Amino acid sequence: MSKIIGITGWKDVGKTHYASLIIKSLVNKGYQVGSIKHAHHDFDIDKPGTDSFKHREAGSNQVIISSSKRWAKITENNNENEKSLDDLIKELHNVDIVIVEGFKKYNHPKIEILSKNIKNRNKETNNIIAIVSDDLKDNITPVFKENDIENLVEFIIQKIL
Protein backbone atom coordinates (compact mmCIF):
# COMPACT_ATOMS: atom_id res chain seq x y z
CA MET A 1 0.00 0.00 0.00
CA SER A 2 1.18 3.49 -0.82
CA LYS A 3 2.14 6.05 1.78
CA ILE A 4 -0.36 8.91 1.86
CA ILE A 5 -0.28 12.53 3.02
CA GLY A 6 -3.20 14.89 2.61
CA ILE A 7 -3.23 18.63 2.04
CA THR A 8 -6.33 20.24 3.51
CA GLY A 9 -7.66 23.64 4.45
CA TRP A 10 -10.43 26.12 3.78
CA LYS A 11 -11.23 27.23 0.21
CA ASP A 12 -8.61 29.47 -1.43
CA VAL A 13 -5.89 29.07 1.23
CA GLY A 14 -3.34 27.72 -1.26
CA LYS A 15 -3.79 23.94 -1.00
CA THR A 16 -2.87 23.36 -4.65
CA HIS A 17 0.12 25.70 -4.36
CA TYR A 18 1.51 23.77 -1.39
CA ALA A 19 0.68 20.37 -2.91
CA SER A 20 2.63 21.39 -6.03
CA LEU A 21 5.64 22.58 -4.02
CA ILE A 22 5.66 19.38 -1.94
CA ILE A 23 5.38 17.20 -5.07
CA LYS A 24 8.22 19.07 -6.79
CA SER A 25 10.49 18.78 -3.75
CA LEU A 26 9.79 15.06 -3.30
CA VAL A 27 10.43 14.39 -7.01
CA ASN A 28 13.70 16.35 -6.80
CA LYS A 29 14.69 14.05 -3.92
CA GLY A 30 14.10 10.98 -6.13
CA TYR A 31 10.64 9.87 -4.95
CA GLN A 32 7.94 8.66 -7.33
CA VAL A 33 4.87 10.75 -6.47
CA GLY A 34 1.23 10.22 -7.34
CA SER A 35 -1.46 12.75 -6.59
CA ILE A 36 -5.22 12.85 -6.25
CA LYS A 37 -7.23 16.07 -6.31
CA HIS A 38 -10.84 16.09 -5.12
CA ALA A 39 -13.22 18.37 -7.03
CA HIS A 40 -16.46 19.55 -5.46
CA HIS A 41 -17.84 20.45 -8.87
CA ASP A 42 -18.31 18.98 -12.32
CA PHE A 43 -15.12 19.00 -14.35
CA ASP A 44 -13.92 17.85 -17.73
CA ILE A 45 -10.37 17.10 -18.82
CA ASP A 46 -11.41 16.55 -22.41
CA LYS A 47 -12.07 19.33 -24.92
CA PRO A 48 -14.96 19.56 -27.39
CA GLY A 49 -13.84 18.73 -30.90
CA THR A 50 -11.08 16.28 -29.94
CA ASP A 51 -11.36 12.69 -31.09
CA SER A 52 -11.57 11.38 -27.52
CA PHE A 53 -14.37 13.86 -26.75
CA LYS A 54 -16.24 12.58 -29.81
CA HIS A 55 -15.85 9.00 -28.52
CA ARG A 56 -17.42 9.97 -25.17
CA GLU A 57 -20.10 12.05 -26.82
CA ALA A 58 -21.01 9.01 -28.93
CA GLY A 59 -21.58 7.04 -25.72
CA SER A 60 -18.31 5.36 -24.77
CA ASN A 61 -18.23 4.92 -20.94
CA GLN A 62 -14.44 4.66 -20.88
CA VAL A 63 -11.96 6.31 -23.20
CA ILE A 64 -8.20 5.86 -23.12
CA ILE A 65 -6.02 8.45 -24.81
CA SER A 66 -2.44 7.32 -25.36
CA SER A 67 0.78 8.72 -26.80
CA SER A 68 4.48 8.15 -26.27
CA LYS A 69 4.48 10.93 -23.62
CA ARG A 70 1.46 9.99 -21.44
CA TRP A 71 -1.87 8.26 -21.30
CA ALA A 72 -5.15 9.03 -19.59
CA LYS A 73 -8.32 7.09 -18.91
CA ILE A 74 -11.62 8.93 -18.68
CA THR A 75 -14.43 7.01 -17.01
CA GLU A 76 -17.99 8.28 -16.91
CA ASN A 77 -19.62 7.73 -13.50
CA ASN A 78 -23.10 7.89 -15.07
CA ASN A 79 -24.46 9.52 -11.90
CA GLU A 80 -23.33 6.58 -9.75
CA ASN A 81 -21.50 7.10 -6.48
CA GLU A 82 -18.16 8.85 -6.58
CA LYS A 83 -15.18 6.51 -6.12
CA SER A 84 -13.79 6.32 -2.61
CA LEU A 85 -10.30 7.59 -1.88
CA ASP A 86 -9.17 3.98 -1.33
CA ASP A 87 -10.47 3.00 -4.78
CA LEU A 88 -8.73 5.97 -6.40
CA ILE A 89 -5.43 5.14 -4.67
CA LYS A 90 -5.65 1.61 -6.09
CA GLU A 91 -5.61 3.20 -9.57
CA LEU A 92 -2.09 4.56 -8.93
CA HIS A 93 0.90 2.32 -9.61
CA ASN A 94 4.64 2.50 -8.90
CA VAL A 95 4.53 5.48 -6.54
CA ASP A 96 6.33 5.93 -3.23
CA ILE A 97 3.86 8.47 -1.87
CA VAL A 98 0.44 9.83 -2.75
CA ILE A 99 -0.35 13.51 -2.20
CA VAL A 100 -4.09 13.91 -1.64
CA GLU A 101 -5.69 17.33 -1.94
CA GLY A 102 -9.12 17.42 -0.36
CA PHE A 103 -10.87 14.32 1.02
CA LYS A 104 -10.71 15.96 4.47
CA LYS A 105 -13.15 13.52 6.08
CA TYR A 106 -10.97 10.47 5.37
CA ASN A 107 -8.57 9.30 8.09
CA HIS A 108 -5.20 9.57 6.29
CA PRO A 109 -2.57 11.90 7.83
CA LYS A 110 -3.00 15.51 6.73
CA ILE A 111 -1.26 18.87 6.69
CA GLU A 112 -3.64 21.77 7.26
CA ILE A 113 -2.94 25.00 5.39
CA LEU A 114 -3.99 28.21 7.15
CA SER A 115 -3.75 31.62 5.50
CA LYS A 116 -3.17 35.03 6.97
CA ASN A 117 -6.87 35.82 6.54
CA ILE A 118 -8.20 32.50 7.84
CA LYS A 119 -6.71 31.40 11.13
CA ASN A 120 -9.47 29.17 12.50
CA ARG A 121 -8.94 25.47 11.96
CA ASN A 122 -11.54 23.19 10.43
CA LYS A 123 -12.98 21.11 13.27
CA GLU A 124 -14.37 18.52 10.79
CA THR A 125 -10.87 17.55 9.65
CA ASN A 126 -9.16 14.76 11.57
CA ASN A 127 -5.65 13.33 11.74
CA ILE A 128 -3.78 16.64 11.25
CA ILE A 129 -0.07 15.90 11.73
CA ALA A 130 1.24 19.38 10.79
CA ILE A 131 0.07 22.91 10.09
CA VAL A 132 1.37 25.53 7.66
CA SER A 133 0.90 29.04 9.08
CA ASP A 134 2.97 32.13 9.74
CA ASP A 135 0.67 33.22 12.56
CA LEU A 136 -0.52 30.15 14.46
CA LYS A 137 1.28 28.72 17.46
CA ASP A 138 0.36 25.21 18.56
CA ASN A 139 1.92 23.30 21.43
CA ILE A 140 0.79 19.89 20.17
CA THR A 141 0.92 19.92 16.35
CA PRO A 142 4.11 20.95 14.50
CA VAL A 143 3.72 24.30 12.69
CA PHE A 144 5.76 25.20 9.60
CA LYS A 145 6.14 28.70 8.23
CA GLU A 146 4.60 29.33 4.82
CA ASN A 147 7.97 29.53 3.03
CA ASP A 148 9.55 26.58 4.88
CA ILE A 149 8.79 23.89 2.28
CA GLU A 150 12.09 22.05 2.68
CA ASN A 151 11.60 21.43 6.41
CA LEU A 152 7.96 20.49 5.78
CA VAL A 153 9.04 17.96 3.14
CA GLU A 154 11.71 16.54 5.48
CA PHE A 155 8.98 16.17 8.12
CA ILE A 156 6.81 14.29 5.58
CA ILE A 157 9.72 12.01 4.68
CA GLN A 158 10.44 11.21 8.33
CA LYS A 159 6.79 10.78 9.33
CA ILE A 160 5.28 9.11 6.25
CA LEU A 161 8.07 7.51 4.22
Give a verbal description of the structure.
The protein has a single domain, classed as P-loop containing nucleotide triphosphate hydrolases (Rossmann fold), CATH 3.40.50. The chain is globular. A hairpin with a 4-residue loop joins strand 3 and strand 4. The protein is of the alpha/beta class and 161 residues long. The strands form 2 sheets. Strands 2-5-1-6-7-8 form a 6-stranded parallel beta sheet. 19% of the residues are buried.
Rg over alpha carbons: 18 Å
CATH class: Alpha Beta
Q: Provide the residue-averaged pLDDT.
A: 90
Total of DSSP H or I helical runs spanning 4+ residues: 4
Q: What is the multimeric organization of the chains shown?
A: single chain
> Which fold does the CATH topology refer to?
Rossmann fold
Features:
Rossmann fold; two-stranded antiparallel ribbon; 6-stranded parallel beta sheet; alpha/beta; 23% strand; 161 residues
Quickly describe the structure.
With 161 residues, the protein is an alpha/beta fold. It has one domain: 3-Layer(aba) Sandwich (Rossmann fold), CATH 3.40.50.
Topology:
Blueprint: E1 3-8, H1 15-28, E2 33-37, H2 51-58, E3 62-66, E4 71-75, H3 85-90, E5 97-101, E6 110-113, E7 128-132, E8 143-144, H4 149-159
Helix pairs in contact: 1-4
